[in-house]
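Collaboration report, partner site 2.

Our partner group contributed sequences for two proteins of shared interest, and the home lab folded both. The records are reproduced in the order in which they were received, starting with the first partner submission.
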Amino acid sequence: MLGRPAPPRRPDPRRAQDPLHAGPRHLDLFDLARKYPLTGGSVRNCVVRAAFLAAAEDAKLSQDHLMRAVRLEYRAAGKLSESGPLE
């Protein structure tokens, strides 16, 4: 099958439902990463939590949803400060 080109790939409809692919240009992820250093698992938890917050409001994922999710993740981890990690 070397001489035959591959058929064009169709867009995956699940990616359109993924909140981070719904228009991340309005999200400042670098600012969040700088202010709140988190492990990979905590980042995932924050994104999932933010997606649920947005879905509960029937809204697109926003910076506010991510900020609230990060704060909730910090509280869940026992870090009471919202300005950064407690050491």
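Second partner submission, folded after the first:
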Amino acid sequence: MLVLAVAKTRTGTTLGKPVLLTEGRVTLVDAFLAGSVLLGLVLNAVLGWWWADPFRRNSARLLRRPGSPRGAAHETPALIMQVSR
């Protein structure tokens, strides 16, 4: 996913497409969330750290923007609408 995020960002920069830049950022957030889920599951399975998954879930809240109940990815359609006008 990280490769895809970088590719979308580079392509968006080259073509001057802000929507593709935003899509690259959303893909980067998705990659972080997928990695954190995997890390929580591995820590739970290998080391028995049952608290790793709740810790991961709470640390993912750092990605939220102020005033956004669902996180940065939730605001992407609004950002696309603002940029395309």
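Feedback sent to the partner group on the second submission included the following. Confidence is low (pLDDT under 50) at residues 71-75. The helical segments are 2-15, 18-47, 52-59, 76-84.
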